[in-house]
Amino acid sequence: MSAIVVGYVDKPEGRAALRRAATEAKLRQARLVVVNAQGAGSEGTPEADEAVAGVRAELDAHGLGYEYRELGQGAEPAEDLIAVADEVAADFIVIGLRRRSPVGKLILGSNAQRILLDASCPVLAVKADPDV
Description:
Layout: E1 3-8, H1 12-28, E2 31-36, H2 46-62, E3 66-70, H3 77-87, E4 92-97, H4 102-107, H5 111-118, E5 123-127
Parallel strand pairs: 1-2, 1-4, 2-3, 4-5
């Protein structure tokens, strides 16, 4: 069975990536692997628990088979996402993008860029709906 890996953060770009990954998984009858890319230490908080419950409810409503994973302690989101994609032999990875200024792109490291350049499978990058 094929698999699609999605990097999820509880932000508009993460929700857009999750929606697109769910659509693709349903179309392709693929297993969906959701990787919570919030970062180590975010799990267990009421906000994080509510976000996870929302993700599970949305995917259950779609009737999808899925697996939900948390980032490893101290792991970089890009490395974790790529490692999971390699582990499950993913058809592709879905990530969400946010708008950044030219200076922001220069100064800050970009997980999206690392995933796009380092992943051994195709990467589908989606933008968040500005009205959401």
